[in-house]
Amino acid sequence: MAVQWREHLLQGTSTGQDRKPGRGRGQQGPPMRPHLLKAPPSLPIPTLETELPSRENLWGTYTTQSPSSRTLLTMWEPGAGCERREVQECLQQFQVTRAQLQQIQAGLLDSMEQALRGQANPAPAVRMLPTYVGSTPHGTEQGDFLVLELGATGASLRVLWVTLTGVDGHRVEPRSQEFVIPQEVMLGTGQQLFDFAACCLSEFLDAHPVGNQGLQLGFSFSFPCHQTGLARSTLISWTKGFRCSGVEGQDVVQLLRDAIQRRGASNIDVIAVVNDTVGTMMGCEPGVRPCEVGLVVDTGTNACYMEEARHVAALDEDRGRVCVSVEWGSFGDDGALGPLLTAFDHALDLESLNPHAQRFEKMVGGLYLGELVRLVLSHLAQRGVLFGGSSSPALQSQGSILPEDVAAMEDPSVGAAHVLTILQGLGLSPEVSDVELVRSVCAAVSTRAARLCAAALAAVLARLQRSREQQMLQVTVATGGRVFEWHRRFHSILQETVALLVPECDVSFIPSVDGGGRGVAVVTAVAARLAAHRRLLEETLMPFRLNCEQLAGVQAQMREAMAKGLRGEASSLRMLPTYVRATPDGSERGDFLALDLGGTNFRVLLVRVTEGGVQITNQVYSVPEHVAQGSGQQLFDHIVDCIVDFQRAQGLSGQSLPLGFTFSFPCKQLGLDQGILLNWTKGFNALDCEGRDVVCLLREAIRRRQAVELNVVAIVNDTVGTMMSCGYEDPRCEMGLIVGTGTNACYMEELRNVAGVAGDSGQMCINMEWGAFGDDGSLGSLSTCFDDSVDQASINPGKQRFEKMISGMYLGEIVRHILLHLTSLGVLFRGQQTQRLQTRDIFKTKFLSDIESDSLALRQVRAILEDLGLPVTSDDALMVLEVCQAVSRRAAQLCGAGVAAVVEKIRENRGLEELTVSVGVDGTLYKLHPHFSSLVAATVRQLAPRCTVTFLESEDGSGKGAALVTAVACRLAQTTRV
Ligand code: 0WK
Ligand code: BGC
Ligand code: BGC
């Protein structure tokens, strides 16, 4: 196989320096031979009555006859006058009236908008395919890029080496080489085609050594494709004479990568796939007005334009623009072009490789123009109107008249000479009179093509007017394709007709300089930049992606630390006895006051425990930072102030109700109502409290506030309060978990395992204070530089390392540090560091929950970031979303590893094969984050498969739990007193 291609390759022509400026591809490259058409059946001549619509001829084209001359046809007798009329009648079929052009414009606009809205039934005639190109070129793109063009110019493939300087107006002429694609490859298997392409690439690189460094390739693939990314594109259907098997429905980038792999050219990386219209549009020098429309008329035809992203239903975007490939070639496949189609169009379609498809393309695309002319000439020859009724095998054979022949024969100055050359080349001996008639046929076919193309372009411009809500639209259209190069009249007719159909649009046309090769390189440069950004993002987030082994490692380390802590040995887990020996049994009764300090809010609660259940009245109070970080006296006086305010509000003044104090900080409890604060956490840092019994501190404050009677019965940690609160409903609840401002857990441990507490039977609730897990450095391997930055910036550096990787007080900060890092790498926000992003705590953990919520479209993500004064693109928003997901996922997994360690401990404590247990949970992060709880549960299932764990979200918080602990203490005190 390879050898055979080599011959073809030798046929390939390297065109680089010899290209004439501004003329895109120049005259070289393979002829646009439609030799891929099937053998023709005999050409049916339509009956005028049925086929030809009535037309008012406003264009004054090739006939001076009024339309009414049609009826004369039936009476036609052989002779010159009649022949001319027969020709005119025949050509009249190619005339398209203004009204018809406006109908096409309106019909196409409708189809475009149906497709944009995502209408499925009936399926719109055009596809409107988003291309993932979100902006026109900035002119800053730079680098060297390999470009492979397949499909834009029919039976040829082109390889280019494009250098983008990134300097406005400074252009380096691309080096390129064209290769003729053998017919058997265009109709062969997909593997053959892509191997041929890979072969051409190596051939080009052999001929144009560009060094062995990693080569970034942009793939211009000019066929209808569903793109799901800049480098992922699935072929919908072949057009233009291609019909390789095993490609439709496949990702063509992967097919090319596989072929390059098979060829062993591992240094070529396919970065982007681009439709030729997009390459044409993006190849425009960013001038005064950016090119926002790309129009190609080569073997096929199509256009793309920059649509408002919010109008593209397929995209979940509301801001910015996206380039949409219209794929207007298929317009009319639903019959909308019926009245315009001549018998010649039907004949051409039936003998094409894709009958009934691409009907619009078959009236406009270069692959078909020559064939249409041939069919008309062969018809008129058969009718004895041309060439004296004689024909020739060449005239009867498909593809014998090339589109460039049509353009040549039409050429105002040398056209007649071309007609003679070309017809003689077809074995005909034309009369002088035939020459003019043949030129009229060419003009009729190409004029119709140009006008139809104009009507389609007018539809795109009308869509832009609507999309931009601008009546007076100023727009630049980049044009590409050899029909434009060869057929100057095509261009002028197009311009005239557009001006007539959308007079309010100020349209300027810019011919693409090199057939879009540069544009493909620009898109590839953008894709390369995004790919590089993605790699940097992955590298940055990789340490946050914990695998099962690492999580099992955390679980094992936690088990070890638990065992040491319980034995009273040095451990980052203090495993503090809480003197809570049982969960409630439902017999508790009475009114209790409860305080809940340490979470987002400080609450004072009245808890009434009756036969019928528990009623809670509570009041939320704030603890200002200056109080939380002031003196201990200030803090506890503030607490008593709130209690007094609550009592007054609840009419409890002067009553001395038993009080349970949820104090969510590490305390060494010496009894139920004695808790020595070991150290503050979570942003609290009141002086003269650490090492003191906080119940005493509270009682002193009560004493300082005369006339207040309070009976502090119990001090509990919020984890304990939460476990008790949920345990009241579900007796299997033997663990308490908090994931809020801070994080921690407690559970019912066998007393025999608790050193320092008398007794071997029964259980006691242990407050693990797992927030400090890893403070001995045991989490070093998991800690990232961002964790270290957050820790260093905290008021308790080196402390609560586990908490600082999990809880709400820190996740936002971790994300902010990562965003700062990615901005400094230029990956985010175009590298612009903003003051706001450098502000501590400006990125709230709540933003993670908002940004990750499934219902929040990317647009809302952008809104959150813009509120932070960040210049956000949709790529930025996507990357910020990924950062949030990575940080919260790690937090949930680490938390899950901790829970798995505890429930496995309980199971082993009881020597059980299987354990069923419930965990009472509270905390804003756990409750509000859209995925946190499910990720915790999934991690527990993975690491503790022999435990069936139910997570019970506490409704009333730990205040109720504190009251229940107090109630139990009061009940026990009562029974001991009697
Ligand atoms: C509500 C509990 C309270 C606990 C808090 C933790 O009643 O004891 O401290 O949850 O969640 P955070 O408010 O810190 O998110
Ligand atoms: C394809 C388009 C392409 C156009 C011009 C059509 O046949 O479907 O994707 O842009 O030809 O090459
Ligand atoms: C404290 C714990 C508390 C947890 C949840 C941590 O900072 O040390 O005592 O349970 O936060 O509020």
From TrEMBL:
Location of the Hexokinase C-terminal domain: 293-526, 734-968
Residue ranges, annotated region (Disordered): 1-42
Catalytic activity annotation: D-fructose + ATP = D-fructose 6-phosphate + ADP + H(+); a D-hexose + ATP = a D-hexose 6-phosphate + ADP + H(+); D-glucose + ATP = D-glucose 6-phosphate + ADP + H(+)
Gene Ontology cellular-component annotations: cytosol; mitochondrion
GO terms classed as biological process: glucose metabolic process; glycolytic process; intracellular glucose homeostasis
Lineage: superkingdom: Eukaryota
GO molecular function: ATP binding; D-glucose binding; fructokinase activity; glucokinase activity; mannokinase activity
Keywords: Allosteric enzyme, ATP-binding, Glycolysis, Kinase, Nucleotide-binding, Repeat, Transferase
Family membership noted in the UniProt record: Belongs to the hexokinase family.
Function: Catalyzes the phosphorylation of hexose, such as D-glucose and D-fructose, to hexose 6-phosphate (D-glucose 6-phosphate and D-fructose 6-phosphate, respectively). Mediates the initial step of glycolysis by catalyzing phosphorylation of D-glucose to D-glucose 6-phosphate.
Name by which UniProt lists this protein: Hexokinase-3
Gene name, Swiss-Prot/TrEMBL: HK3
